Amino acid sequence: MRNRAAYSKLTIRDVAAEAGVSIATVSRVLNGRAPIAPETAAKVRAAVERLGFRANRTGRELRAGISRTVGVLVPSLDNPVFAESVTGIQEAARDAGWSVLIASSGYDVERENEAIGNLLSHRVGGLLLTVADADRSATLDTLDREQTPYVLLYNQPDRDDRATATIDNVAAGRDATRALIAAGHRRLAMVAGRFVASDRSKQRHRGFSEALAEARLEQVALIELDFDAVAAFDPMIRAVLTGPNRPTGLFCSTDLLALRIMALLREAHVAVPGEVGIVGFDGIAVGRLMAPSLATIVQPSREMGRRAFQHLLARLEGAAPEQILLPYEFRPGGSLGGTANAPQGE
Amino acid sequence: MRNRAAYSKLTIRDVAAEAGVSIATVSRVLNGRAPIAPETAAKVRAAVERLGFRANRTGRELRAGISRTVGVLVPSLDNPVFAESVTGIQEAARDAGWSVLIASSGYDVERENEAIGNLLSHRVGGLLLTVADADRSATLDTLDREQTPYVLLYNQPDRDDRATATIDNVAAGRDATRALIAAGHRRLAMVAGRFVASDRSKQRHRGFSEALAEARLEQVALIELDFDAVAAFDPMIRAVLTGPNRPTGLFCSTDLLALRIMALLREAHVAVPGEVGIVGFDGIAVGRLMAPSLATIVQPSREMGRRAFQHLLARLEGAAPEQILLPYEFRPGGSLGGTANAPQGE
DNA sequence: TTGTAGGCGTTATCAG
DNA sequence: CTGATAACGCCTACAA
Question: Does B317 touch chain A (CB under 8 A)?
Fold first, then answer.
């Protein structure tokens, strides 16, 4: 028996020597595929146990040409909505014996491309991505061309050849806005994450516009914000909210934005929901803990992560790209104000 | 020139053929180590560009025996404090050209061990971990024995041979409690994450106890909660908060717990800070957005992630394990109540 | 300065 | 049922 090497340095060769069999046999026992004599298997397993051996996935992957690792790209883990989807991905991946390689883009297209390239250099089995704009992305074009399997999360491209797990953002944006209108608000504005950084934001605004049109209302204002710097827009927001035709209802394209706006308004002594009603979007957990609680569209982020992963596995087996539309739900909350009868989500 | 294969299937052999050189030359150009004729390098680079080639890290890693991937284990990404540390890790990793493999334990020791084993099977270059109990962990013992480099985050073991990046949890717990006392609270209780699931929680409670002793006060109650199920403890908490000697000050071992307790109290019509003052721990971003804003100990989570990664790199170069103690800060907030003069963090 | 060849740890093929 | 062996993609002596 060789000297016991470090855990991370053991190879099946060590195990083979310890068990007195060939490396091929060790491999077979480890993978349980081929027919093996029970005693041989026992010997090998004992050796594995004794040595504390764990197969090197690198060798396995190189041999197989593909890995059971999924590459995940999110805009930012600091938005709980994305963190939650990653939790769902992790759950599904764990169930399937897969690992998760993660990267963040910071909502920046250049970093997005760079990060995807890095993930690909690991020869991951597939990708789960939330990108800035799923309809025009050079990197997604490349992935398509080279048939690298991926599934988008949150993104909801117009084209139907890209696999996604998402909700209907336009419909949800419409529902959120309808809730404001149903609550009695007539002068509505939207605070949105930059459209170039988030196609969802744009789609939610489309829903906002549709609901306004339905009710024959005009948009009072549209404030596009960077996702990271809200404070800088304080003056602009104050201006809008104290202007001549100031809105009484605000639709925010994400909950995080909504919470920041609410804090801003509090500082400015604008009462929520007294003077302004607010609806968010995402359904992050902390929204329910606020006072007033945040009315919002709840996305099933965790489930979205799980479903996206499962669809990725399906695609690896040759399934065609699907656009998985998950149900969302409007969650009423004190921030809405007015005398709302909350509409039900689809 | 061969048929253009899928991006992910290209090898340096393809590039070599395309450029009319040997694979060794391609490798050398890619790594920029050896002396190369400028024109040769140009040819190779052109071929790389033309083909859209990106080196397969699996092959590289197998050959090198080690990878530029860091394995990260957190209790849960759904607590923003951990998500934030991962953001810091990602930043530092990206700067260094490393990738991030991530797993969550759900605060469960068994899953913790399993996850670390999985990360190790990838032969990661090192590990960044937040474990349940850094002082007694069979897995950490194993890592030490086999000299697998790792750095702990948030964990603050008593022993000084384990590398960490953390804050002084006892001192911070003491400061948080002192703040409650300084605010005029005399009947103090603590709501803590289960000690078996979080050594930090235990240490923060030690700080709590020390501050009480200093002020010659008795602990009114200690409520240990599972990190995921707070609602279930509603009755217990209500009982404590309405008991004969009910506390007027509450120290919560995490911000997330504090926010949940605040919501619970709101439902129970117990005024915060009117009837109960609250201090949290972590400094998650949303705490500042609440009304009242959450008084808390702010940990430099992002920086902690960055520093932990950097120390891991240092350890890989042979540096001895360090216990990096980062500064924390007490952030006053409306939840504190009383007439506090907030103490400064160290 | 460049090419040839061996081997990293694993699995699959092919004999026995 | 088991063993020897040839790859997988890459890097690095060693040769030329």
Answer: no
